[in-house]
Each structure stands twice: as C-alpha cells, then as structure tokens.
Structure of NAD(P)H-binding protein:
Amino acid sequence: MILVTGATGTVGREVARLLAPAHPLRILTRRPELVTAQGPAVTVVRGGFTDPESLHRALTGVHAAFLVTNRVTEEDDARFIDAARACGVRHLVKLSAAAVEDPEADDLITRWQRENERAVRESGLAWTLLRPRSFMSNTLSWAPAVRSEGVVRALYGESANACVDPRDVAEVAAHALTRDGQEGRVHALSGPEAVTALEQTAVLSKVLGRPLRFEELGPERARSALLDRYPEAITEALLHSAGRQQNGAKARVDSAVPAILGRPARTFDTWAADHAQAFA
C-alpha cells in the first residue's frame, strides 16, 4: 500500500494518477471531491495533517508514503512523520526544493524546507528526498494576462531557471515509491536547459500563434503584486529567491531526471504545447 498526500496539487495529482492503475493506493486529502486518480485499489481518506485520527486511518497498513506539505508556518511534516512511525510505515518520499542545498538561500521558505528535510532524515524511517527546481507550471500564473492582454508580466526578464516539468518530478516520485535502492537518495531535479521569462514568452507566442509582449515588473511592482496574494514574510522570501535566480543560482542543469527515467527531461517547449489551452 502506498499513500499519497497532496493528491489534488501539481505533483501529487500526477503521482496518484501514475500509481493508481497498478498499485494499492490510499489518498489523504481535505477535499476528496477533487481527487481524479482512478484504479482498482484506490481509497480516499478525508482528513489532514492536523487531524490525528485521519492520519492514523490513512497510514495504517501503508508501506511507502509521498509527503507534500505547503503551510510554512505549520509543523505538518513532524505531525506526519510521528504518525507514520507509529503506524509502521517503512519509506518516506519527501518533496523538498533545490534551494536547500544553496548556502546563499536563507529565506523563510528555504529554512522551513531544510527543517523538514532534517525531520525526515532523523525519523528513523527509510527516506528519499526530491529537490526540484521551479515548476514550469508556475507560468500558469501568467495565463489571465496572456488571454486578456497578450502580455507576460514577471519580475525579471533575463534571469535563467532550469525549471522542471512537474510530470517529470511525479515520475521520479513514483519510481522512488515503487523501486528498490532509493533509500537514502537525494535527487536534484531540473529541466534540460535554463530558460528566462523572455524565452518562455517567445515559446508561448509560438505555441499560441500570436504575438505576446513581455513586461518586466522590477522589485517594487513585484512586491506590491505579491503582497496582494501572500503575507509579507512569504513575499520577502519569494523576492529573495528571485534575486538568487538573477545572480545565476538556479541555472544549473542536473542529470537525475534522465538518469532515473531513461529519457531526456521534458523541455519548456513541450510543456507549453501540452498546456496551450490554458493560455488560449
């Protein structure tokens, strides 16, 4: 039995879809109605990290679990690990972030991810850590302005990121959950090349068959836009991360995706073509 958390989110949804046809699968979620994975042995448990009873129901009889958390001010990883240990789970596959290995990354989100990794490493369970670069799907935040104005607005136009297709991250996660030899492994996951927002805009323009204009926000306009969506501490963490990207910290291409999956990592061109309807 495999448990997937985050199964209504970007990576967890795809992990569940990949596993559902051939594996006994349990899904823990606060929103069962949003689960799309279907298979002969899929069960859904309504609950969450702050509900000990639902954690126990979800984790009982589970061999391996995919752990995704996103509430930076909460100790959801520690809660899950305690319950997993009590229920006899043997292997945790944790979705982390590439920034944790960068000594220059000292923002709130990265410190939280480092603490989560520490908790996993010290859990006494077998573990695998996945450290992806930014998701290509983050560009979906551009979609409303692309559709209505034909414009892409981003903080910086020429800073490069070796962003990764979330589907590749999910395939690596499914591999780690179902294959031997993944215990104690740390996988840095990137796309096949570093791309800038200007280059992504050009790709989207080609895919959509119409011109798009790029507009660089700069730090102050970006801060104002972020504060409309996030608390100040999260906003400052995201701006710090963008500054590191501008300094080249996110341009490195890693080899784990092709090494594990036996094929090249998907390009942004491929991702854009597959998701063109979202921008159309």
